[in-house]
């Protein structure tokens, strides 16, 4: 994934880029809009035990299926990027949460596949790629995200020190999408229920009072809100670029390939 700022500490792991065929072990509807699929494969033994929060790419053929022909200029697979929610290395089980649209209002390769997937199905993945983690010892933490970045936020909250202080603002589509997340006692989670096209994350940023503390900031959501939030946050008097990460995971009405191109263009404009 291409990002704007990339100054946060990287998880010290070497990406495993050779494609791997994984098998669906189970699939579960966590909510109206989130489907959790658990995968397994012997090849997952090469994944680090702390790879939760890193990302993988799911590979699809030109018809949206998972059977891949020999790669050529005419058969290059389509890839969709997802965060590893959890990984059980002892049992070689990897959980991935998918944002889905059960009413068919939005269609997509990964969404459609996740809805019809069943135990025994297989799919090829690439990765994992290095994830981003929050720096330790920050005075304050501010996290902003929507359902697409909820798995990454959940992992980061789990890994914060017990005495960490901060707030996480998470936009979800319905009350059923709210999850019970492990977190430090002094980190408050604000669940913002709204349509995915709304700007409730931006409104939350605008409502945050000025502070003398220098926060570590992590933001990943739709392209439009990310840019608007970045524009505001970078003007804060206590803004520290070294403690900040911005990324967009999607853009309404744009394919993943189109979104990737927009992110690259945005990065070049900000350079």
TrEMBL record:
GO molecular function: oxidoreductase activity
FAD-binding FR-type domain segment(s): 17-135
Alphabetized InterPro entries for the sequence: FAD-bd_FR_type, FNR_nucleotide-bd, Riboflavin_synthase-like_b-brl, SIP_FAD-bd, SIP_fam, SIP_rossman_dom
Similarity section: Belongs to the SIP oxidoreductase family.
UniProt protein name: Siderophore-interacting protein
